[in-house]
Amino acid sequence: MKSQQILIALTCAIALTGCSNTQAQPIAKSPEIQTSTSEITSSPVATTTSPAESQTDGAEISKSSTEQTSRYQCKGTNNHLFLGNGTVKNRYGNPIYILHLCVGGKERRSFEVVTGRNYTQKRNRNQSGTESPLPNGKYRMSNTLVPGTLAEVGRVDGLNVRQPFLAISPLFRTGRSALGFHVDPSYNKDAKEDGTSGCIGFLNQADFKSFWANVQQYQIKDFQVAINTRAVDNPNVAER
C-alpha cells in the first residue's frame, strides 16, 4: 500500500510538476505582454487624438474660407470691392460671404460678412421687405459715414460716428433701397436678428474699422455683388 502511494506521488510529480501546488504558485506575466501594455499607455497618440482632430477641423474651416477668398481674381486696375460666395455658415446656418478689397488689380484684404438672414436667402432679392441678401449687380459707394437709424446697425468704438453706416446706391433697377455696410451686433447671438435685412454686415468692429480705413485710403467707389448665382429659385443673375 505504501509503495502504491509513493508510485502515485511520483507519477503526479512527473506529469503535472506538483499537483497540489499548481494553484498556489502565481503565474508570471509574459514579458511580451508587459511591453505591449507599456507601449500603449505611454503613447502620446492615445491621449491627444481627440484634441488634435478638433484643432484640425477648426483649421480646415478657416483654410477653406481663405481658399475661397483667393479664388476671386481682381479684374482691371481700378480699385473696387467684390462680394462673392463663401464656404461656411455660422451657428444659425447663415452663410458667411467674402468681401474682397481689390487695389491696383490685386486683392489687398478680404472680410467675412453676412447679408440677409438664414431663412431669407432664397427670397426674391429685388423685392422690398423680403430681408433677403442684396441683389447681384453693380453699386456706387458713398464717401461718408452716417449714423445708423436702427438698433441693428452696430456700434464701432474709435470712430466719429458711433453707429456708422456706409450707404450704397444700385446702378440698376431694383425695388430694394436703404442698403449699405455696417456691423451686425447680433451676429451669432440671436437666431431671429442674426444677419441683416439686406445690408452687408461685418462680424466685428475691428473688421469694419479696417474696411473703412482702406476705403478711405484707396478712394474706393465701385462695388459689385455676385452671390448665390446658381441657387435654386433665385431670380437674380450676376452682372459681371
Automatic annotation (TrEMBL):
The keyword RNA-binding does not apply. Keywords: Signal. Residues 30-54 have a biased composition (Low complexity). Residues 1-24 form the signal peptide. PROSITE patterns: PROKAR_LIPOPROTEIN (PS51257). The keyword Transport does not apply. It holds the Pfam family YkuD. One of its GO terms (molecular function) is transferase activity. Residues 62-71 have a biased composition (Polar residues). Residues 99-216 form the L,D-TPase catalytic domain. Residues 28-71 are annotated as: Disordered. Transmembrane segments: none annotated. It comes from the Bacteria. Coiled coil: none annotated. This is L,D-TPase catalytic domain-containing protein. It comes from Chamaesiphon polymorphus CCALA 037.
